[in-house]
């Protein structure tokens, strides 16, 4: 989604702002802009529709903009079409206040009306212009300076935001406020950096301050002061970000997505080893002890998109191994449902970014209902991680491609580990089974490597089917969970319509869509459901469908039915999603490449969905 950067220091700001924005491109955007201060001169604003390249060109790589203090933005349109007028920064007409904004001001229409009555006029369709003018209004009305105006603003608006502000009266300062949208600040060698995402700062510093909800910051040159909404100064600790800078580079791969697919063995291994020590799972770092685990009577898993698909798989594993009831819910539904959460419930929020608006809201609602909460999160220090009672960090490292792969795989591993530990503590498995599961999990990275070694077969198949119009994915049990993810991977980056169905549902309507040549991908890794899946495949075949099977080595009989088969190594039935998903990720990737699409930044999508 939108990205924010800021710089205040002793060198030219615009090239640094553009570099920061380029690190945020992966989040998805449709226009970009920068505003730079040169001492007491007026703020200079340059904006461009489309790719960042246009902004680089307009500013001669930033060199044309003098000044060592500025803010920048990549916009993903919410209010108003993508255009130069709607692009950020926005300012008051006299340039007294200039801002960039991530998020949504929900009551902007009402505020706009109030400001119009006060004499303001508006040129864009955005809520951000309203925000800029409201801040200006408070500065002028109360004459008590930026912090006073910003705290009044925060008390008046509804919605979510991270906002960076330049005030004409403070040429050497940048101000920031946030609520439900991330914003971080780094200080290094007399320079101060700001961004909505750590990835934009890694090149300059790893020592990061997180601005909390309803907090403000004033960034000077090489220093920063934080305030709460009551305008009191607050102290903050620095967090060292351990991510490798190279992890945010392509390192010779054509796209981030294929690089991240190849990083899965490492992501799985690191996540596994972060809690498995000497053959035992140790959840001390999560603050989950055995009494806690024994006490839970119900688990909810709440998430969006691929993270929700992890929940669907985890439900099968947790219920089967630990015999505890699990409900999996889409966060945007969970948050608006009449919830009847029983006592002793654990609500697990799964999120790569830790900033997804609906997942964050679901977390807060779960807490309001008295549930204990656990976040499975990839981004250290993200809002969901900070607000949950317990955090299980996945160690996937920074994920740049919009289509998730390695974070999904690491989330699966986290959920298996929870299931194994819950099963052991609740005495549903023997010590031998416990040891066996952990031993088997250690083999998963190697097995993923093996699938990746055979990627050319999938590449060949993808090229053949790149022009497909509709694709259906079928699976039963945990294979249905994998089908959901395979289908999303294909559609989000190849723009081919695809859907996943529980195979038993086929006859209840969907089969009427199968015609000669329709590609149907069947996932069948579960021995108990294999025969039933084959029957479903035969039904499709007899209606002219073209069948791809995805099964384990040894099930060669499938070739009597399927037109093309991808094989994965055998593993414990609970862990098959970790292997079965890989050929499907590769399929989505190679179809997108064959169609010449923008694999890492698919149209209309954002990496982290911080608005509803
Ligand atoms: O950051 P999150 O894990 O909370 O994001 C949730 C979804 O937006 C995300 O999984 C999305 O579906 C993927 N980018 C799809 O590949």
From TrEMBL:
It is an enzyme of class 2 (transferase). PROSITE patterns: GATASE_TYPE_2, SIS. Gene3D superfamilies: Glucose-6-phosphate isomerase like protein, domain 1, Glutamine Phosphoribosylpyrophosphate, subunit 1, domain 1. Residues 2-222 form the Glutamine amidotransferase type-2 domain. Keywords: Aminotransferase, Cytoplasm, Glutamine amidotransferase, Repeat, Transferase. Its main location: cytoplasm. It holds the Pfam family GATase_6. It catalyses: D-fructose 6-phosphate + L-glutamine = D-glucosamine 6-phosphate + L-glutamate. GO terms for molecular function: carbohydrate derivative binding; glutamine-fructose-6-phosphate transaminase (isomerizing) activity. It is found in: Cytoplasm. GO terms for cellular component: cytosol. Catalyzes the first step in hexosamine metabolism, converting fructose-6P into glucosamine-6P using glutamine as a nitrogen source. This is Glutamine--fructose-6-phosphate aminotransferase [isomerizing]. It comes from [Clostridium] aminophilum.
